[in-house]
Amino acid sequence: MENMPKVKIGIVAVSRDCFPESLSVNRRKALVEAYTKKYDAENIYECPVCIVESEIHMVQALEDLKKNECNALVVYLGNFGPEISETLLAKHFDGPAMFVAAAEESGDSLTQGRGDAYCGMLNASYNLALRNVKAYIPEYPVGTAEECADMIEEFVPIARAVVALKDLKIISFGPRPLNFLACNAPIKQLYNLGIEIEENSELDLFEAFKKHEGDERIPAVVADMEKELGEGNMKPEVLPKLAQYELTLLDWVEAHKGYRKYVAIAGKCWPAFQTQFGFVPCYVNSRLTGRGIPVSCEVDIYGALSEFIGTAVSNDVVTLLDINNTVPADMYKEDIEGKFNYTHKDTFMGFHCGNTNSKKLAFCSMKYQLIMARNLPEEVTQGTLEGDITPGEITFYRLQSTADNKLRAYIAHGEVLPVATRSFGGIGIFAIPEMGRFYRHVLVEGNYPHHGAVAFGHYGKALYEVFKYIGVDVNEIGYNQPAGVRYPTENPFA
N or C: which end of the chain has fewer CB within 10 A? Predict the structure, then answer.
């Protein structure tokens, strides 16, 4: 994916000076060997400068990590570990940090070969809290070399998201459409997360668009669109304008990202957009999102942020959909009941006008936007990418600063069913276990807007850790609780 960092994790072994240093040296070597046998060796760097036993060693390790361009850190307790130096290492490292510890190898080596890292992890966690240092600690952070290698691989997408957010700028073109208070975006929390935001008028965007008339690059972009759409190219006459708009956005990103490395866009798409630009931007939004530059609809700033996080975690295309409409009872009975293990209330339709990338649609065609065409000439509503969303596993999620300016999030695993939607737009029939209760006691109760981000796969574990790492209170991360587990606001007599 473009617009995403490459994670390089520096592995630093630590040792308490009253334990054999060789334990940490040999266990670090075994860990690196286990990782490179199974995963991409370019993801990690073995810090050979020293085993960290003191503050001086800590500084030497930091210098080596910086020299080798590491942007994430694994502190590996090969034995009990020096609780001060190891936590200072995480404190002064400029990037996300993870702590893991070595399990004992054999019952035959429990005298000189016993490392007590199981004990050391407790002191490490205590010292991290004393210093207000954030660190990722896996669910069970003690393991063999192979088990710790698996833990590090799980850290890669978490680290990628945290690294990316530190260098993110969100560019918005507003204001939000009338009656879209749901997309309200208190920006204070963006600054708290270290994210920059540039808010622009859609008039600024329109001026930039006009300046791209006759751009010599337009024919090449049109050709690329034609190749992507194939037989789904139902409105070829609008492609030059769409290409002009795509170039406008890409040039704006390059000219305005400033000192930041990564960008997401919260775009305007109605009501004046169609009449002034002469098209709708959905298809262009889908193309940029497919390249790793998420573009949300309706100036949804936290929607764009959510998409960006999902792109970083999944390293794949995401989308933004309305949690839109119920599945009709007759359709449920005909196409779902008895064929899939979901109740009617577990299902709903996720929809948006046409912003989902073609790679995530079972079939697609670029045409006009039906809802807008009810009130406007059809020719100015062209530019949506319609089709049923590809069946398979999904994660529905969102990070939001709600009306009280507090960070909250939700995550739910589910799937897109292989059932024809019989409808329009970019749309799919979604099934999430216990969706009815989740809808009422997380989405409605938590005052979330109708937009939700969708990652194509089950990424809840990593997303949960990312949200924790960036400061969302775990009590403010909602999820679809299984049957029999009551939500705090759920009526016990219902």
Answer: C
